[in-house]
Amino acid sequence: MVTFTTKFLPYQLYPSASQVGESKYDWYKKTKYDNSEERMKMYTALMSAYGAPLDIDFRFDGLVANTLQAHRVVQHYQEARGAEVADKIVNSLYEQYFEQAQHPSSSETLLTATTAAGIDEAEARQFIEAEDEGLQDVKLLVREQAGNGVDSVPYIVFEGRRRDFTLEGAKEIPEYLKVLQQVAKESS
Asked: In what helix (H) or strand (E) does residue 164 lie, and over which residues does it extend?
């Protein structure tokens, strides 16, 4: 039997984004779709269609903002509490950002994510408010990922016994299954 463990490494697609943030809808329309309302509507319809079968109700209001503090929190608790806790934090962050239109790295969002992962609220609040704690380590990891050629998300490396497999960008489920099955086959 092969066991797979997720390890999150920080990477920022838009490191120059402000912590305050700006309208998610307007940002996508301007940055990705050349200010075209028609293309933006096509994008929101497509993403909504992708999410519907999975009970994901994508929202396009809310803010796009710098995610460095969120990465700092994920890294800290991944090291301190392990992969399962980090996974719960990330899932909560994704749900809050994509489905509840919450700021991606506000103190409130981070506190909700950490408590959803079972971390004591007082402990989590203390770490979240200490915004410089572990920050340089996370910045170094971000630079390391960029130096490794990472320029899209997700960027997933499956470490196999004989070789590693890398999938870049959004993929269909069968592509992930194929890689997982190959890693399992080569590990037996």
From this structure: strand 164-168
